[in-house]
Amino acid sequence: MNELSHVGPSSSRFSNSTQLFDSAYYLDLLTNKGLLESDVALLSDPLGMEYAIRAVQDPMAFLNEFGWAMIKMGAIPALEPYGWRRNCAFVEPKY
């Protein structure tokens, strides 16, 4: 069993997919289980509402779109002086 499955409250307002990465977040939003202002803002925008509905109706399309978004985000060049760390636990020396 995953060590992280023991973290958090025993009962949750959220969907029971804590060990999965899926579109359940959007189902929670559409069933009024969002907690943050950003959740409300997402559904108050017609495009956000459309996206949430599509994510719930077609979870595989959601995962595909998320994968492409991660690839695009990974292609964003690092800006100096910060850059990307090879090991997030350590600040790399400046050359």
TrEMBL record:
Catalytic function, reaction form: 2 a phenolic donor + H2O2 = 2 a phenolic radical donor + 2 H2O
Domain Plant heme peroxidase family profile, residue spans: 1-92
Keywords: Calcium, Heme, Iron, Metal-binding, Oxidoreductase, Peroxidase
Record keyword Oxidoreductase present: yes
PROSITE patterns cross-referenced by the UniProt entry: PEROXIDASE_4 (PS50873)
Keyword Oxidoreductase: yes
Cofactor note (record): Binds 2 calcium ions per subunit.
Entry cofactors: Ca(2+); heme b
Molecular function (Gene Ontology), one example: lactoperoxidase activity
Swiss-Prot/TrEMBL GO biological process terms: response to oxidative stress
Binding positions (Ca(2+)): D22
Coiled coil location: none
Protein name: Plant heme peroxidase family profile domain-containing protein
Organism: Marchantia polymorpha subsp. ruderalis
Taxonomy of the source species: Eukaryota, Viridiplantae, Streptophyta, Embryophyta, Marchantiophyta
